[in-house]
Amino acid sequence: MTTHVLILCTHNSARSVLSEGMLNHLAAKLGNDVQAHSAGSAPSGRINPFAIEALHNAGIDTSSYRSKSWDEFSRDGAPPLAIVITVCDSAAAEQCPVFFGSNADQGGQPVKVHWGYPDPSNAEGGEEGKRRAFELTRQAIGYRMLQLLALPLDTMDRATLQAALGEIGKS
User: Fold this and answer.
1) What tens digit of pLDDT does each residue of 39-94 get?
2) How far from chain centre, in Å, is Cα 139?
3) In which order are the strands placed within the sheet that holds 34-40?
4) Comparing C-alpha atoms, which of 96, 92, 81 is closest to residue 41?
């Protein structure tokens, strides 16, 4: 059974998109039955071009990507979410979205965890500074996604999964 993961950030234009791309790319490479989705509480309606560039440079097809609202994941017919990850940077006083959807496989709430990353859109140094920040963010996200994919998701109970995801967030 596919494990559906929703990654949230406020505007769904940078970090959540990088996360969706990396998790889907790595899951496919490793043969894991994990499907990532991304959304925002206040979607910008566009994906940051530096996010698209960083994913393209990693060999990831972004042609179907779009900035979307988290509302799509609390409607009938939405994928049953097992995990919801917020990726905004609370240290930068960003308002992180809170997800209230209830679509988990066993009818319960998805496991929720926060993995904060600074917004690469705010990087200094002009275009090259932003390009570097997006690439470093993509790499950091990829590292955590590999750790997530190493978990025995099919056999973990909710509390164990919550603890394991929390530990990954500290790495």
Assistant:
1) 998 899 999 999 999 999 999 999 999 999 998 988 888 999 999 999 987 654 44
2) 13
3) 34-40, 3-9, 81-86, 111-114
4) 96
Handedness of CA 131, 112, 22, 77 (dihedral sign): negative
Q: Give the separation between CA 165 and CA 170, rounded to whole angstroms.
A: 9
The residues annotated with a catalytic role in the active site are 9, 88, 96
The full set of domains in the chain, from first to last, is 3-170 (3.40.50.2300)
Per residue in 111-132, pLDDT (tens digit) is 999 999 999 999 999 999 999 9
pTM: 0.91
Instruction: State the amino acid at position 86 in one-letter form.
Output: T
> How far does the chain reach from its first CA to its final CA, in angstroms?
28
Name the average pLDDT for the chain.
90
- Report yes or no: 47 and 21 within 8 Å, Cβ to Cβ: no
DSSP 51-116: HHHHHHHTT---TT----BGGGGSSTT---EEEEEE-S-GGGT-----------TTSSPPEEEE--
